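Input record (Table S2, row 120):
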Amino acid sequence: MKFKDDCIFCKIANKRIPAEIIEETDGFIVIKDMNPVAPIHLLIISKSHYDSVLDVGCKGGADKSGGRELFGILGSLADKFNVADKGFRTVINTKEDGGQTVNHLHIHFMAGRGFGWPPG
Ligand code: 5GP
Ligand code: ZN
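Output record (guanosine-5'-monophosphate complex):
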């Protein structure tokens, strides 16, 4: 478990800052995005600090169960928000070209409208 003192998502995921918790597992917490771009816009945030998804894959810090846990969360959210039939969009923005603005691993879960392809 890595905790970075100046990281807002470390504070949220470890409950140093109060937030409405949609779902929680050993490794992740799910909250609403404060600036939603879809009727349902959630953030799946790792409890441990990783600068980006690259930190998980390349630096050996990952708990191997994390991926399985994450896929489980997606299914659970789809059921909870009743979007398993219509579907949803998941996004992991990574670094500058990916449009990442918060440097702590998080996965966007967006639903409730159609999304175009390719993304802008
Ligand atoms: P990124 O661009 O890094 O993939 O996404 C960061 C997301 O986090 C943005 O959609 C932004 O609205 C959201 N966000 C940033 N700070 C906070 C916060 O303090 N609370 C919540 N709920 N969302 C945040
Ligand atoms: Zn962090």
